[in-house]
């Protein structure tokens, strides 16, 4: 194993601009609490989305390196599971404190590699940090149950860790999604192999460093890199007992199927097409701010981005106001003061989004606000698309059927609440949805009938806080939503129940003949 030289991810200073990096360093991987340089010759170039300057080269770890990560996690498992839950809780408290201390540094890494604005990147870290904070309640969350079945018999349940588990993460939340996994997987006594997105692993590397500083023993948290081959290795490695995946349907459905066929537990959060239904009785100004923020924030690259607007009745007349507010957003490098949204992740992603906008035009929709061709003066080479609004959209159009994952709002109009509900329910995705109304009964009807798994009532991005769970539905989650991230279901995913039934009969109750009937304990 080759120790990595002084690395950006371990430095105390961090970037605050999109300036070209003069000495580009390769991203290390992390095993046994050590940053290591990969011996591979196969690297993925990572470019700053605002400039397309090279930031780092991400290795595709070799099979031997991936095997070393598994061996490390296997060695660490038994001693780690033997530690007291209070010990693990104390490490989690330290981890939480270190994330807070390194909040700006984590956010800066995200802005540089992923492109979102620094303020938004701080939110990315915070939503993950909140999961780590909730994981500090492990002694409570890991409690089992006891029932005194009879005077001499009791049944108890224990929650036991699974062993080595793995997490495969997407590019759009480089801190939050690793933090959906690291805290809960480890505090419950498992050891973890994390594969961040090859497009922005910097935040995960900082989290690895903080995990080591917090006192996680060697091998409890490991980070490896790569793309499909690394994922296939994880899917087929028998020592890995469970996989947490967040990302696209294409990758996730494959991962769920192959991982499950190999006997692993798999939880997989997938793509989305989140609708907002707006009713004429809503608070118009609050709604416009909410929909513009949630459609275009993070350049639309959130799985809960509010990308589809269903305008009920006369609200279709509000489109010029929505377009006006969208136009006022500042599209710029994420480190620039006042930037509201940054670039999209890659030139390929920009081209894909632009082709979806073009397809809408070709299919007869209207481009009310066209963000194609926009470039901030200081960053002419970035992957820019300014807020775009497409109106007159119908469910048959490609821009409606596909997840655009860019700063594009598609708008449909209907006459009634019932029509809005039917339209939204006919969509195959079911991640999030929002309704804007001042009417309690309207909101209640919507809440009952809507099929999406996360509902906002006058709340544009209803991502549940970590004492709840992330409950997407339909095509937005694999396996029918049987296993969801964080909250109690997250603890359940990373633990196996063991149920013990004990009988303490008094001496004179010992009979002379074996009872061959099925015991009923009644
Ligand atoms: P992605 O599926 O391209 O990549 C996710 C991970 O899977 C990466 O680590 C990548 O290396 C790996 N991967 C990609 N293609 C693969 C393949 N064919 N075989 C094996 N592994 C593969 O997703 P992305 O572009 O990084 O993220 C955006 C997507 O994630 C969007 O669809 C978004 O809606 C979704 N997402 C969903 C949630 C949620 O909770 N539902 C949250 C965030 C993002």
Main beta-sheet annotation: 7 strands, mixed
End-to-end separation in angstroms reads 60 Å
Choose one word for the global shape.
Answer: globular
Integer-rounded radius of gyration: 25 Å
Percent of residues in helices: 25-40%
Proportion of beta-strand residues? 15-25%
Unreliable stretches (pLDDT < 50, length at least 5) are none
Number of helices: 16
Task: Provide the residue-averaged pLDDT.
Answer: 96
**What small ligands are held by the chains?**
nicotinamide-adenine-dinucleotide
* Class from secondary-structure proportions: alpha/beta
In order across it, which strands form the biggest sheet?
16-17-18-15-14-20-21
Q: What's the number of extended β-strand segments?
A: 23
Quick tags:
alpha/beta, single chain, binds nicotinamide-adenine-dinucleotide, 23 strands, seven-stranded mixed beta sheet, 36% helix, 522 residues
List the helices and strands and how they pair.
Elements: E1 2-3, E2 25-26, E3 29-31, E4 34-37, E5 43-47, E6 54-59, H1 63-82, H2 85-101, H3 103-114, H4 118-135, H5 138-141, E7 146-150, E8 153-161, E9 164-168, H6 176-187, E10 191-195, H7 202-214, E11 221-223, H8 228-236, E12 240-246, H9 249-261, E13 265-269, E14 274-278, H10 284-296, E15 306-312, H11 319-327, H12 347-362, E16 366-369, E17 388-391, H13 398-401, E18 408-414, H14 417-426, E19 429-430, E20 432-436, H15 440-449, E21 454-457, E22 473-474, H16 487-493, E23 495-503
Parallel strand pairs: 2-6, 9-10, 9-12, 10-11, 12-13, 14-15, 14-20, 15-18, 17-18, 20-21
Antiparallel strand pairs: 1-4, 3-4, 5-6, 7-8, 8-23, 16-17, 19-22
The protein binds nicotinamide-adenine-dinucleotide.
The site of nicotinamide-adenine-dinucleotide (NAD) has 29 residues, from helix 8 and helix 9.
């Amino acid at each position: 194993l080759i120790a990595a030289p002084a690395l950006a991810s371990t430095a105390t200073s961090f970037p605050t601009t999109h300036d070209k990096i003069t000495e580009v360093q390769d991203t290390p991987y992390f095993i046994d609490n050590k940053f290591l340089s990969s011996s591979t010759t196969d690297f993925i170039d990572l470019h700053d989305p605002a400039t397309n300057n090279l930031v780092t080269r991400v290795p595709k770890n070799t099979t031997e390196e991936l095997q070393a990560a598994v061996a490390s996690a296997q060695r660490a498992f038994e001693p780690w599971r033997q530690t007291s839950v209070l010990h693990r809780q104390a490490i989690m408290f330290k981890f939480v404190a270190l994330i807070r201390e390194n909040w700006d540094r984590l956010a800066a890494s995200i802005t540089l590699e992923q492109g979102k604005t620094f303020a938004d990147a701080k939110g990315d870290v915070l939503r993950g940090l909140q999961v780590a904070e909730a994981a500090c309640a492990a002694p409570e969350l890991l409690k089992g149950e006891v029932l005194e079945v009879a005077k001499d018999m009791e049944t108890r349940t224990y929650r036991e860790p699974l062993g080595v588990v793995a997490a495969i993460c997407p590019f759009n939340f480089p801190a939050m999604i690793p933090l959906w996994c690291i805290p809960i997987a480890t505090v419950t006594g498992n050891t973890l192999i994390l594969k961040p997105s090859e497009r922005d692993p910097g935040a995960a590397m900082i989290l690895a460093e903080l995990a080591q500083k917090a006192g996680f023993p060697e091998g409890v948290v490991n980070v490896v890199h790569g793309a499909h081959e690394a994922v296939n290795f994880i899917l087929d490695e028998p020592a890995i007992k469970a996989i947490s995946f967040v990302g696209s349907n294409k990758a996730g459905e494959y991962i769920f199927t192959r991982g499950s066929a190999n006997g692993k537990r798999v939880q997989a959060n997938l793509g989305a097409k989140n609708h907002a239904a707006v009713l004429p009785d809503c608070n118009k100004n609050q709604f416009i701010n909410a929909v513009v923020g949630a459609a275009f924030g993070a350049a639309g690259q959130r799985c809960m981005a509010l990308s589809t607007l269903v305008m009920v009745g006369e609200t279709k007349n509000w489109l010029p106001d929505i377009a006006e507010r969208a136009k006022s957003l500042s599209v710029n490098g994420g480190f620039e003061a006042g930037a509201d949204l940054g670039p999209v992740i890659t030139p390929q992603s920009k081209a894909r989004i632009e082709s979806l906008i073009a397809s809408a035009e070709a299919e007869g929709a209207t481009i009310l606000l066209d963000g194609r061709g926009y470039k901030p003066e200081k960053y002419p080479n970035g992957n820019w698309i300014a807020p775009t609004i497409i109106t007159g959209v119908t469910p048959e159009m490609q821009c409606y059927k596909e997840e655009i994952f860019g700063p594009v709002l598609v708008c449909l109009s209907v006459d009634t609440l019932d029509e809005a509900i039917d339209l939204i329910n006919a969509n195959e995705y079911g991640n999030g949805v929002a309704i804007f109304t001042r009417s309690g009964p309207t909101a209640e009807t919507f809440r009952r009938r809507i099929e999406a798994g996360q509902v906002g009532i006058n709340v544009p991005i209803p991502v549940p806080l970590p004492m709840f769970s992330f409950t997407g539905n339909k095509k937005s989650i694999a396996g029918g939503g049987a296993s969801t991230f964080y909250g109690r279901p997250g603890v359940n995913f990373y633990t196996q129940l063991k149920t013990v039934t004990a009988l303490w009969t008094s001496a004179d109750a010992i009979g002379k003949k074996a009872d061959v009937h099925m015991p009923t304990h009644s």
